[in-house]
Amino acid sequence: MHQLTMNVLNLLFTKDGLICQITKNKNILEEKSYFVTEETSADHIMEQLEEILIRQRYDEISVISALNHFTLMPEGFSEHETGYDLIAFNAPVEKENEELMLSVNKKFRVQFYYTFPRNFYRKIKDLAIPVRFNFSGEKFLNTIHTKNNKEIHINLYHNQCEFFAIDHKKVILYNNLDVNSEVDFLYFIMFTLSKIGFGINETHFYVYGETTENETFISELQKFVKNLKIVYDNVPKKNFILN
């Protein structure tokens, strides 16, 4: 029987980076991260994206945005034309430079409006091969297994973190933060707990993603919380949001 070879390109866009993963029949061939630094050019991410897109022939592309231009709405909200305005409450929006996207999570009955940079969007779409776009919050939410507790699920990135507050299997809050220090992560999460009335001792914390490179944050968090579990650590070729 003739086996079809599927070359898939997975792209994850973050605040200051691009993580690229190439798979062949679900086996990971390559995983690479590109980050903007003081030494790189202003167009560093676009240059890397262009190089990746022409490197080989892909059968499919999967794009996930972890950029914090988003809003969370209940499932069934249909006034799509207000998407940009809703996002503008959380982050500055430039309509002419951003593509408005929608991502629905059936499991928790919520949906995300998010924007994705139009220059990246067009560059990817120009290849004219099947592309799936998704928002990191939706993908993250889909992988969460909840119990009947107050829970905080935290996914750590490079200089960024996203987290869900869930109470009895219902999403109370989602946020996606660009932060420059691990102390800021801690401050934001503790501040959120106090705002939504999650007691520190009754709340279960679950951490995913770049746990090794954010170990200061985790060790600080452990000083305050009783129930903390590291669920997933991004070891090489195993990126939590891409796998």
Strand order across the largest sheet: 3-2-1-4-8
Question: Could you tell me the mean pLDDT?
Answer: 94
Outline, from the CA principal axes?
Answer: globular
Question: How much strand?
Answer: 35-45%
What's the helix-strand series? EEEHEEHEEHEHEEEHEHE
The profile of the biggest β sheet is: 5 strands, mixed
* Structural class by helix and strand composition: alpha/beta
- Bin the helical content: 10-25%
> Total number of helical segments?
6
Question: What is the end-to-end distance?
Answer: 28 Å
Write the layout of secondary structure elements.
Blueprint: E1 7-14, E2 17-24, E3 27-35, H1 44-55, E4 60-65, E5 70-74, H2 83-88, E6 98-105, E7 110-117, H3 118-125, E8 131-135, H4 136-143, E9 150-157, E10 160-167, E11 170-178, H5 182-196, E12 203-209, H6 215-224, E13 227-230
Helix pairs in contact: 1-3, 5-6
